[in-house]
Specification:
The protein is of the alpha/beta class. The protein folds into four domains: 37-172, no CATH class; 201-331 and 391-405 and 429-461, Rossmann fold (3-Layer(aba) Sandwich); 467-536, Helicase, Ruva Protein, domain 3 (Orthogonal Bundle); 546-795, Up-down Bundle (Methane Monooxygenase Hydroxylase, Chain G, domain 1). 53% of the residues lie in helices and 6% in strands. Strands 1-3-4-8-2-9 form a six-stranded mixed sheet, sandwiched between helices. Helix 12 runs parallel beside helix 14 (394-405) and helix 23 packs across helix 25 (681-710). The longest helix is centred in the last third of the chain and has 30 residues, at 681-710. The N and C termini lie far apart (111 Å).
Length: 802
């Protein structure tokens, strides 16, 4: 009869203790396995500590006994501990020799103790021997404790075991006092941190929120996508039953004032869920660690609200204050005409006639110029903040990331610990319906770990509203006040405010209402809207008057901008021109796009540069080669645009990218030659690029001079109209240049050759006064005002009329 086949699965032997009667699984080592240092000295340390306790007890019984004498006495009286320590020392020496000598180890393990070991293995299993060894160790330690306690208490070891608990009980009040002091000090810190972790989080319950999607105007496409997202919050089974998961994170990014916060409120209002608003500065604290506590506390609150109401919405406003790791981010597009550093001291508002995209690009470049230049040509980042505060902090961000996608532990102490004690598995945590919404105007500052799917599942841009959106927004805000505006006027207002946001539109309507109330009226008129628009675009004018020659110079400067813009630019229309001194500029020519446009072309950028360089070309032409510092902002913007054209956009004399050439260190991108000896590739690239930019700007400057020379009379006419009216609307600019009648300007007078001759004579007198620093000896020629202009309209003739 054949034996049954062995069906035991092959594989590595199991780890841990061998089962009973199981043969050894591995061959014996030639030497003993080496012990760790702590395993080697722990018994010696135990004996030493026990002996020192006995020495201390003898000193406690006799305060006059010095330590040296106490040691001498216990060397004699407690020498049994020293003998035990000596035996342990001998044992460790024995182990040390067995670890290093195979012959020594074989002698003791096979010849001396080998027979005993084999007998024990045959009669006792490994598990039984392990339990016996553990029992002997406990007995040894109890015996050692009894002997030491007997020496301390001066009694027998048996009685010492019974008296020790009584001594511990008598010392319990003192221990309790120490414990109370410890917990009191700890409670002070806990209370302080708990108080500091409060605040910055506002909770609105369903009845508190009245905002609906119908209140969000001008962002219809984004609203539709957000509506789709909240469907799953209201009916999660529709996707989870099919194996998916409910998107729980939503990021709204875009310029300030476009309605991101309003949209989050509308989501809460539509769903009827609690709305938790997290203040941007809630996680900026004096002490490190407070932000982490706030995040933990916030999400505990969110989980409770989610269980009670079936869902909750939390909104982090200005999320870049929390969700970054110290990145120096560039700002997004600001207001259409609010330029910063490069144009503050320009004299002329050097960026007002540029499109919003170009202004944004120049603003980003200006922000980037604040970085320090390092010796190797790179820019170092400007870092702020200290170790105790500033921003959300790394720990706060990590806590937020953990809460957004970390493991959720089972709820309740009884569930977590009680069921485990009874051998039962805790109940799994419920599914918390938490919709996390964030808003920022600096999405590039957010950490990539925060934006990954599972945390932030959907990202929507809330950009500038289209013209239809602006019309709808104007209609919504004007419907809340009394006004006389016709639909055609609202449509025109939406056209001439191409980059208006919901916030700026609301502010414009409110400013119009204030102007009407100031004049004793309750109904907003078209004139009120135009005056409010002028105030928002230019700011309040400074109450100063130019001297005649400076007024004429500023007027010529702005007239050159206006004429070149009107003759060459097709993608932009002049909104208004002014020589009223503002906070940062002596005058400006503002332009707007007639339609929404999303691409830019070389011809458009060149026309932008022509308009920028018109001031320098015009001042040199009309003032005999002289020019003012007021062209600095114009040259800044022209150089920046030309640099991008030559080095990045392929709109110059070469097609290679300066950025790529610099990064790859390929030398001059235009010439294809390597760097000369002694010069770095970066230096060669910069020189080549600078030469091309200078050549490009020189050609465009010559073209601008040619255009101005061909339109000399138009420049003088525009300068005269600016000196007469200070501010011209788009219709008035067109009336001057086309010789027609405008809103406040009678442009037909500029067709008269005799009047143009007076303008030329006046200009020569003003130019002579400029060179000699004297007063202008001729008066400004009268003319150009509409005779039928009523006095009431004349009072507001300086208002820009789009």
């Amino acid at each position: 009869m054949t034996a049954p086949a062995d069906t035991t699965p092959a594989g590595p032997p199991p780890e841990g203790l061998a089962p009973p009667d199981d043969p050894p699984r591995a061959p014996e080592r030639p030497t003993r396995k080496r012990m760790a240092l702590w395993d080697r000295i722990r018994l010696l340390a135990l004996f030493l500590v026990a002996w020192l306790i006995i020495v201390w007890a003898s000193m406690a019984d006799n305060p006059l006994l010095p330590f040296v004498d106490a040691v001498r006495i216990q060397v004699v009286e407690s020498q049994w501990l020293l003998w035990l320590a000596g035996a342990e020392l001998v044992r460790q020496v024995h182990f040390l020799l067995s670890e290093r000598s195979a012959g020594y180890h074989h002698l003791w393990s096979q010849r001396v103790f080998g027979g005993t070991e084999r007998v024990l293995r045959r009669r006792l299993s490994d598990w039984t021997r392990f339990r016996l060894a553990r029992l002997l160790k406990w007995a040894f330690f109890i015996l050692l404790f009894a002997l030491v306690a007997a020496e301390v208490l001066e009694t027998s070891p048996v009685l010492a075991l019974f008296e020790a608990p009584a001594l511990l009980w008598s010392a319990l009040p003192y221990v309790a006092q120490l414990a109370f002091a410890f917990f009191f000090i700890a409670f002070q810190f806990i209370g302080l941190f708990w108080l500091l972790s409060r605040g910055g989080v506002d909770t609105y319950y369903p009845d508190d929120i009245t905002t609906r999607f119908t209140d969000v105007w001008g962002q219809d496409q984004v609203v539709e996508r957000v509506k789709e997202s909240i469907v799953f919050l209201e009916n999660p089974d529709a996707i989870e039953a099919r194996g998916g998961y409910v998107p729980s994170g939503l990021l709204l990014w875009g310029p300030p004032g476009t309605g991101k916060t309003l949209m989050a409120e509308a989501v809460a209002g539509e769903t009827g869920k609690p709305y938790v608003f997290v203040d941007p500065g809630a996680f900026t604290n004096m002490f490190m660690g407070i932000g982490i506590l706030k995040v933990k506390s916030l999400f505990r609150k969110l989980r409770k609200l989610a269980l009670r109401y079936g869902g909750v919405i939390v909104f982090f406003d200005e999320a870049d204050a929390l969700g970054n790791r110290g990145t120096l981010a560039q700002v997004g597009p600001g207001g259409a005409r609010g330029m910063s550093a490069p144009f503050d001291a320009a004299g002329c508002h050097g960026g007002s006639y540029l499109s919003a995209q170009t202004q944004w690009m120049l603003a980003r470049q200006a922000m980037g110029s604040g970085a320090e230049e390092t010796p190797d040509g790179t820019r170092s980042r400007f870092m702020m903040g200290g170790m105790a505060g500033g921003g959300g902090g790394m720990g706060t961000l990590q806590a937020l990331l953990t809460e957004l996608s970390g493991l959720k532990k089972p709820r309740g102490l009884i569930n977590r610990w009680g069921r485990r004690v009874l051998g039962m598995r805790p109940k799994p945590p419920p599914k918390y319906r938490i919709l996390v919404m964030m808003a920022t105007n600096m999405p590039e500052a957010l950490d990539e770990a925060l934006l990954r799917p599972g945390r932030i599942d959907r990202i929507y841009k809330v950009g500038y509203p289209s013209k239809a959106g602006r019309v709808r927004t104007y209609e919504g805000y004007f419907a809340k006040v009394d006004h006389e505006l016709e639909p055609e006027q609202i449509d025109k207002l939406a056209t001439v405010t191409p980059y208006a946001t919901g916030a700026t539109i609301k502010d414009l309507v409110n400013e119009s209402l204030i102007i009407a109330i100031r004049e004793g009226r309750e109904i907003i008129t078209w004139s009120d809207v135009l005056r409010a628009k002028k105030l928002k675009d230019l700011g309040p004018p400074e109450d100063v008057e130019y001297i005649e020659r400076e007024r004429h110079a500023v007027a010529v400067h702005e007239a050159c901008h206006a004429v070149v813009a009107y003759r060459t630019r097709r993608h932009m229309e002049i909104d208004f021109a002014t020589i009223e001194k503002g906070a940062t500029a002596l005058g400006m020519v503002a332009s707007i796009p007639p339609e929404d446009q999303f691409t830019r072309w070389r011809s458009e950028y060149e026309s932008d540069i022509l308009v920028s360089l018109a001031s320098l070309a015009g001042e040199r032409m009309f003032f005999d080669g002289d020019s003012s510092s007021g062209v600095s902002g114009d040259l800044d913007s022209a150089t920046a645009v030309a640099s991008y054209m030559e080095g990045f956009w392929g709109m110059g004399s070469t097609v290679s990218s300066y950025n790529t050439a610099r990064r790859m260190e390929v030398g001059s991108p235009g010439g294809g030659r390597g760097a000369p000896k002694g010069e770095s590739a970066e230096t060669v690239i910069r020189k080549a690029l600078a030469d091309r930019i200078e050549d490009h700007l020189a050609d465009l400057l010559e073209r601008a001079a040619t255009i101005l020379a061909e339109n000399r009379a138009a420049v003088l006419a525009m300068a005269h109209a600016l000196e007469t009216h200070k501010t011209l609307s788009a219709e008035d600019v067109e009336a001057v240049l086309e010789g027609t009648e405008g809103v406040s300007v009678d442009g037909t007078v500029y067709r008269d050759a005799a009047f143009l001759a007076q303008l030329e004579e006046y200009h020569q007198a003003a130019a002579g006064a400029h060179h000699s620093h004297t007063g202008v000896k001729l008066a400004l020629p009268a003319g150009g005002r509409r005779r039928e202009l009523p006095e009431a309209a004349a009072a507001t003739a300086h208002d820009p009329v789009p």
